[in-house]
Write a structure and sequence with these properties.
single chain, Nitrogenase iron-molybdenum cofactor biosynthesis protein NifE, nitrogen fixation, 19 helices, six-stranded mixed beta sheet, four-stranded parallel beta sheet, oxidoreductase, Rossmann fold, 47% helix, 469 residues, alpha/beta, nitrogenase activity
């Protein structure tokens, strides 16, 4: 790729195919590959992906078979809320030590499960294999079968050894685990006007907002998989008329399994921004083909949008012309972010994701303005340099991207699972506008700008020294 941006930014040779500037060359971007050696990828591991999907199931036991360090990845950095049980907020680990690595950890896992299930009596138990378990070869499946037979509590292995791939592979491991529950419950009494919500994890209560919209339309939500999830709901979710998949990267596999086995159709949805939120509701109403549901949907959207738009005008006035960068876990979310930023008068100059596919990036490219940099599986140095060169005023990302923004003196908006503010739905769009406005217009960045040159000179010096070594 030969263009002005690329020639001013040092890029590892193996990374060049993963970067595209709209308008510079015909669209062609590499993706869905292992991270390039030498590139400090922002991606998470397989274990991380499996935990993102499964742990919001609030009445299940979640046990990490591995070293204690992996247990730090738990509810407190993934803000999924529950309307009832709080078992998902407790992090249990077998805490494997050196002796266990040598002699095996199966006995330790068995004893831990016996004690935990006796004490908590969960609806089900998920057992996560970590890197070390994959290396020493513990037969986690055998232990799970034994515990299920002895306790009557379905105990499900999650093959989430971190080294096996990336976060996206963890999604697959989680879907395989969930598939063992689906179809084991009674579907009597489920309305023909019913759906499952897949791929929303109730961050800051977002699932409740979305579920309320559908219920106001006259649609029954059979199961939320997995935000504020319940084991018994997941067991009977195969009785729903439609699967609505929010985070396509995390839950499409489960929806596909259900389509193949039970014939349940799939539609994709995004609940972020006015356009996508409205479309998500109308798509369900159109599929169910019920006049009352459609009328309720029209009234709901009209009422919510008419309340929201006047409130957004005051924020748009200050934000018009500002430049934003978006880097998310899945590319589908980035599409909604670009639309939401346009609603606020802002331009997206960088858009990327950890796990996007060719179709996702093609849609990103179509939606983006000329000159937008599209990134697949970027690293901190790349991202920082493009932020500087594109003169971004805001970075939207997750916990790993936050320090990059702050070091550069940029506004930052957390749109990942760590956040404590609900950004989905119509009310979420207002929260998004408030947060973006508050950080972009903060006077603190004027002070930070004074130190940018020092930061960049130090970064460039370290990079040159690394090349020389």
């Amino acid at each position: 790729m030969q263009d002005k941006t690329m020639t001013t930014t040092d890029i590892l040779e193996g990374r060049k195919a993963h970067i595209h500037e709209k308008g510079a060359v015909p669209f062609n971007i590499a993706c869905e590959k292992q991270s390039v050696a030498g590139s400090v990828s922002q991606r998470a591991c397989v274990f991380c992906g499996s935990r993102v999907v499964l742990y919001p199931i609030a009445d299940a036991l979640h046990v990490i078979h591995g070293p204690i360090g992996c247990a730090a990845y738990t509810w407190d950095i993934r803000g999924a809320w529950s309307s009832g049980p709080q078992l998902h907020r407790m992090s249990f680990s077998t805490d494997l030590q050196e002796k266990d690595v040598i002699y095996g950890g199966e006995k330790k896992l068995y004893q831990a499960l016996v004690e935990l299930i006796e004490h908590y009596r969960p609806k089900a138990a998920f057992i996560y294999s970590t890197c070390i378990v994959g290396l020493i070869g513990d037969d986690v499946e055998a232990i799970c079968r034994r515990i299920s037979a002895e306790t009557g509590v379905e105990t499900i292995p999650v093959h989430s050894e971190g080294f096996k791939g990336s976060k996206k592979d963890g999604y697959s491991a989680a879907c395989n685990a969930l598939n063992q529950l689906v179809g084991t419950g009674d579907t009597n009494g489920i309305s023909p006007l019913s759906i499952n919500i897949l791929g929303d994890f109730n961050i800051a209560g977002e699932t409740w907002v979305i579920k309320d919209y559908y219920e106001r339309m006259g649609v029954e939500v059979v199961a939320t998989i997995t935000g504020d999830g319940r084991v018994d709901d997941i067991r009977r979710c195969h009785g729903a008329a439609l699967n609505v998949v929010q985070c396509s990267g995390s839950m499409t596999q489960l929806a596909t399994m259900m389509k193949e086995k039970y014939g349940i159709p799939i539609i994709r949805a995004s609940y972020f921004g006015i356009e996508d939120m409205s479309k998500a509701l109308y798509d369900v109403a159109e599929y169910l083909n019920d006049k009352t549901v459609m009328r309720n949907t029209q009234n709901l959207v009209r009422d919510e949008v008419s309340k929201l738009v006047p409130q957004l005008r005051k924020y748009k006035k200050d934000l018009k012309g500002k430049r934003a960068a978006v880097y998310t876990g899945g590319a589908f979310k980035a599409l909604s972010m670009i639309r939401s930023l346009r609603t606020l008068g802002m331009k997206t100059v960088i858009a990327g994701s950890q796990t996007g596919n060719q179709q996702d990036y093609a849609r990103l490219q179509e939606l983006s303005d000329e000159g937008t940099i599209i990134l697949d599986d970027t690293n901190p140095l790349e991202l920082a340099k493009f932020l500087e060169e594109k003169k971004a005023d805001l970075l939207i990302g997750g916990v790993k991207e936050r320090p990059i923004a702050y070091k550069l003196g940029l506004g930052f908006c957390d749109h990942n699972h760590e956040r404590k503010i609900g950004l989905a739905g119509f009310e979420g769009m207002l929260n998004f506008a408030k947060e973006v406005h508050g950080t972009v217009t903060s006077p603190v960045w004027k002070l930070a700008a004074l130190h940018r040159k020092d930061v960049w000179s130090a970064t460039s010096r370290q990079h040159r020294q690394g090349d020389e070594s």
